[in-house]
């Protein structure tokens, strides 16, 4: 009996509140709040479908931050879920200079893979000069003068490639790699 009276009182109060607010037609902006759903739940079809897309898991290899040679911040986590080719090079390395045209060509051919150059073992000025001289500026180039990214990915010499699959597994190859050999690695990565 007490529950019935409480329910009746609540319904009456709600009715009076709604009717005292002008009555008339509802517009979408004044629609009643669905108290069954949490306040943070998406309420539009677009928000619901966007939240249904799973966020890729960030593999350990991509949990790092760095700076690009042009000074922008770079977060490795942004590459999660994609195939990635890391190219570790040094500005004074003749093998690195020799393979730069192959890296540039394969990166242009396989746009579904992210190519990231990781420069180390010298000054930033020398790294920038290398990129300008080799024409590899279309590839994201990280400045890693202290070797933090090299260490993170277990690289100890240049020229080395680390191929990261979307699932986070990696393989390595020591260069120099010609265009056909590099393309073969990328096909395995993207196929």
Secondary structure elements and their pairing?
Blueprint: H1 2-20, H2 45-51, E1 65-68, E2 73-75, E3 84-89, H3 94-109, E4 114-119, H4 124-134, E5 140-143, H5 148-152, E6 160-164, E7 170-174, H6 179-190
Parallel strand pairs: 3-4, 4-5
Antiparallel strand pairs: 1-2, 1-5, 3-6, 6-7
Provide a descriptive summary of the structure in words.
This protein has 191 residues and is α/β, with parallel strands linked by helices. The chain is built from six helices and seven strands; from the N terminus they run ααβββαβαβαββα. The protein has helices at residues 2-20, 45-51, 94-109, 124-134, 148-152, 179-190, and strands spanning 65-68, 73-75, 84-89, 114-119, 140-143, 160-164, 170-174. The protein has a seven-stranded mixed beta sheet with strand order 2-1-5-4-3-6-7. Helix 4 (124-134) links the parallel strand 4 and strand 5. The chain is globular, with a radius of gyration of 28 Å. Residues 1-49 have low confidence and may be disordered.
